[in-house]
Design goal:
This protein has 3 domains: about 5-130, 3-Layer(aba) Sandwich (Rossmann fold), CATH 3.40.50.620; about 130-160 and about 205-290, Serine Threonine Protein Phosphatase 5, Tetratricopeptide repeat, CATH 1.25.40.80; about 300-465, DNA Cyclobutane Dipyrimidine Photolyase, subunit A, domain 3 (Orthogonal Bundle). It contains 21 helices and 5 strands. A 5-stranded parallel beta sheet has the order 3-2-1-4-5, sandwiched between helices. It is globular and about 80 Å long. It is mainly alpha-helical. It starts with a strand and ends in a 10-residue tail after the last helix. The protein binds flavin-adenine dinucleotide.
Length: about 475
């Protein structure tokens, strides 16, 4: 009776899981396995918010597997050693997994694959997380795209919705191999700063399905109009579910297609801007695969010599904790701290403020997001920060520096978002809640901070630093 190990990583679902489907097709029994090996993701070991999500996602997966007769084996250590040990102890013929695209995961997986094959164990790989894997979409010359629009045009033309595989009803497994209890991985924070996460999120495949249904039911039709308004739930909030592979972009594409079929052409068209955002996710993975150095280095070589400021702890901490005195920035940073998520528009504003008004290197911001976002994703985070800093190839021109006051007045016109996260500003009748310093008396009564920088002067200083960027770096980061 042949047995296959299915190595779950960031594909924490049973439906539309190519590794699981293939293993079930070719083997009588499967051993579902998770290996906790954060050191193998170095220097991007999962941050604190990600670990919170991972704990709950694994718990949800384990419950679903148990219900179907194949409990999840949880182990910790070097992946190869754990796999070799289990292959030997359980008599497995093959190991199945779905590919990852981060540089450290690619290197590790290649080593594991070679070692297992050398031992005579079959290895079977699938694509669980992308609409098109890196290398599938190339320019006319066969190279990687560096600009989103032609990349997306190419990918979009190839996309064909197809029905995803369902959840297997029953799984046959082998005797337990003596793994760990989930709690032994120590993923949950010791200090309870995660209280707000529980009401904001439902990690796991079922939670992902609910989020997708709610989005299809109420939001997708108005996505294009509402996606930039942070005060309302105008986006899908699927990012962490996608990152952990609790749902696949193929499943989402299929759901949108079915929605279009049942509700008509207008719904079909309304889904297009959303699909394009999934395209950004694809593009981010494409860039990370082809330019793996960009997690640390500017993609755009034209940016060399820019005079980043040595991060003064005080400035960086004020930004991290939402104490800059600029309401849109502080509201975003507090939303992030309390819920592990921040609206995309506000991510762009907070990133622009750090890199341009404070001139602190984007790497410091990317690290903070990495630790505090439940959806922290190396590909998307790198792209988002490089885009915001102006160092990416496909970035907004450097001189387009977001003004958090005018952005607030445009995308949060009644101040509902700012007031939700900064209640001290809600109590008083500011003419513009986005620029409370214009009414010093009210500002003093509110107890809210004075702005830590003058927006116009810091903008001008950033532009000047940009013009001078060919000069050698003043101080490294
Ligand atoms: C500085 C910065 C850092 C970011 N860091 C991350 C990160 O670590 N992880 C992450 O998933 N996203 C990141 N993003 C992208 C984006 O902000 C989030 O994906 C989005 O806010 C998630 O909310 P949603 O699921 O409701 O998005 P929706 O608007 O509903 O979009 C649907 C999905 O498309 C993808 N997507 C949307 N926008 C982008 C984008 N700009 N780039 C790549 N993929 C996108 C996400 O997977 C998202 O879940 C970052 C953006 C910026 C500006």
């Amino acid at each position: 009776m042949s047995l296959a190990i299915v190595w779950f990583r960031r594909d924490l679902r049973l439906a539309d899981n190519p590794a699981l489907s293939l293993a079930l097709r070719q083997h009588r029994r499967v051993l579902p396995l998770y290996i906790h090996a954060p050191h193998e993701e170095s220097p991007w070991e999962p941050g604190a918010a990600s670990r919170w999500w991972l704990h709950h996602s694994l718990a949800a997966l384990a419950a679903e597997l148990e219900r179907r007769g194949a409990p999840l084996e949880v182990h910790a250590g070097d992946s190869l050693a754990v796999l070799q040990n289990l292959v030997r102890r359980c008599g497995a013929d093959a190991v199945y997994w779905n590919r990852l695209y981060e540089p450290s995961a690619l290197a590790r997986d290649q080593q594991v694959e070679q070692a297992l094959k050398a031992q005579g164990v079959a290895v079977c790989l699938g694509n669980a997380s992308l609409l098109a894997e890196p290398g599938e979409i190339t320019t006319g010359q066969g190279g990687p795209y560096r600009v989103f629009t032609p990349y997306w045009r190419n990918l979009r033309a190839r996309l064909q919705p197809s029905p995803p595989a369902g959840v297997p009803a029953r799984l046959d497994s082998c005797a337990p191999a003596g793994g760990l209890a989930l709690a032994q991985l120590g993923l949950l924070p010791r200090r309870p700063w995660d209280a707000g996460f529980y009401s904001a999120w439902k990690p796991g495949e079922a939670g992902a399905g609910l989020a997708l249904s709610a989005f299809c039911e109420d939001v997708v039709q108005v996505y294009a109009q509402q996606r930039d308004i942070p005060a309302i739930g105008g986006t899908s909030r699927l990012s962490a579910h996608l990152h952990f592979g609790e749902i696949s972009p193929r499943q989402i594409h299929w759901a949108l297609h079915e929605l279009g079929c049942s509700r008509g052409a207008r719904c079909h068209e309304a889904a297009e801007p959303f699909l394009r955002e999934l395209g950004w996710r694809e593009f981010a993975h494409h860039l990370l695969y082809h330019f793996p150095q960009t997690t640390q280095q500017d993609l755009n070589p034209d940016f060399g010599g820019f005079a980043w400021r040595e991060p003064e702890t005080e400035l960086l901490t004020a930004w991290q904790r939402g104490r800059t005195g600029i309401p849109m920035i502080d509201a975003g940073m507090r939303e992030l701290w309390e819920t592990g998520w921040m609206h995309n528009r506000v991510r762009m504003l907070t990133a622009s403020f750090l890199c341009k008004n404070l001139r602190i290197h984007w790497r410091h911001g990317a690290r903070w997001f990495w630790d505090t976002l439940v959806d922290a994703d190396l590909a998307n985070n790198t792209l988002g920060w490089q885009w915001s800093a102006g160092t990416g190839a496909d970035a907004a021109p450097y001189f387009r520096i977001f003004n958090p006051v005018t952005q607030g007045e445009r995308f949060d016109p009644d101040g509902a978002y700012v007031k939700r996260w900064l209640p001290q500003l809600a109590r008083l009748a500011f003419k513009s809640v986005h620029a409370p310093w214009k009414q010093p008396d009210l500002l003093a009564r509110s107890g809210y901070a004075q702005p830590m920088v003058d927006l116009a002067a810091s903008r001008e200083a950033a532009l000047q630093a940009y013009r001078n960027r060919t000069a050698p770096r003043l101080r490294g980061v």
